[in-house]
Design a protein that fits this description.
10 helices; 8 strands; 12% strand; globular; TIM Barrel; alpha/beta; five-stranded parallel sheet; 45% helix
Length: 269
């Protein structure tokens, strides 16, 4: 039976992140033996100088198997692209921003990210080509427009989840015939949660995850939106994933898995 690979990601880690929230998230994830991809906004060198505790938590998370990904540079709208590609920043501008972000994360967090997610999911052809030329393993900026809108309106999101009763796995692919992988977000479930959302989401995952088709099941959230009920949803999700026996990977591990499969297929053909 072909089953989707599961990955959890969390956006908007930055020097302004609430350390207590991050530690709560990591403690919950570790209890269920799940690794998360944390997309970090570099901001500037100076902003990290007063974040020693946060830096230590992020460094420690990597030693426990979690991944640090690059989330733009300053997290501004259209920073790395726009819905209309002709209005996107130039290739050289985007590449320069990425290099600056990489330098900051390397110096402050002692890491070299191989994964990228565009701020606000604003992607462009120039961004994908820049990531590919800089040796990134994957991008994870693609997401359904409707889901992005609903993820920020709890009542509307709950109605949508209840009506659809399902999580459809995404298909990982090479955009623009590049070596770079694109790993689409299956659902952006930003947890400004209401209590009654837990039952809706639980019903959805309980009845659909085990019947998922081959592909990737990428659930995303934002650190600033983590709430008490959001943690309940997380726990329900992890229990369901454990019961169905799906592989739990970081996005980097997922891309590496697909690369290995692709290499093996090419070899045997």
């Amino acid at each position: 039976m072909h089953e989707p690979l599961f990955a959890l990601s969390c956006d908007d880690l930055s020097p302004k992140t609430n350390v207590a929230k991050l530690k709560t998230l990591l403690q919950t994830i570790d209890r269920f033996d799940v690794n998360v991809t944390l997309f970090v906004i570099p901001k500037s060198h100076t902003e990290w100088n007063s974040c020693t505790h946060l830096v230590n938590v992020l460094k420690d998370s990597q030693t426990r198997g979690h991944e640090i990904g690059l989330h733009g540079f300053g997290h501004h709208p259209f920073e790395t692209g726009s819905p209309f590609d002709s209005f996107s920043p130039r290739y050289s501008h985007i590449k320069d921003k990425i290099l600056k972000g990489l330098k900051i994360l390397n110096e402050k967090l002692e890491t070299n990210p191989t994964g990228f997610r565009a701020p606000y999911h604003h992607c462009s052809k120039s961004l994908l080509r820049a990531l590919n030329d800089l040796g990134f393993l994957y991008d994870s900026s693609k997401i359904g427009y409707r889901e992005v809108l609903l993820s920020y309106a709890p009542p509307l999101r709950t109605i949508w989840v209840s009506a659809n009763r399902g999580l459809v796995s995404s298909k990982i692919f090479h955009p623009l015939s590049l070596k770079l992988w694109e790993i689409p977000v299956t659902q952006d479930y930003t947890w400004y949660n209401l209590k009654f959302e837990v039952n809706s989401f639980h019903f959805s995952i309980k009845n659909n995850v085990s019947r998922g088709e081959a592909g990737c099941l990428v659930i995303n959230s934002h650190i600033g939106a983590l709430s008490t009920w959001g943690l309940h949803i997380l726990k329900e999700l992890f229990i369901c994933i454990k019961e169905t026996g799906l592989s739990k990977l970081t996005l980097q591990e997922m891309a590496q898995r697909y690369t290995s499969l692709e290499t093996a297929k090419a070899y045997y053909v």
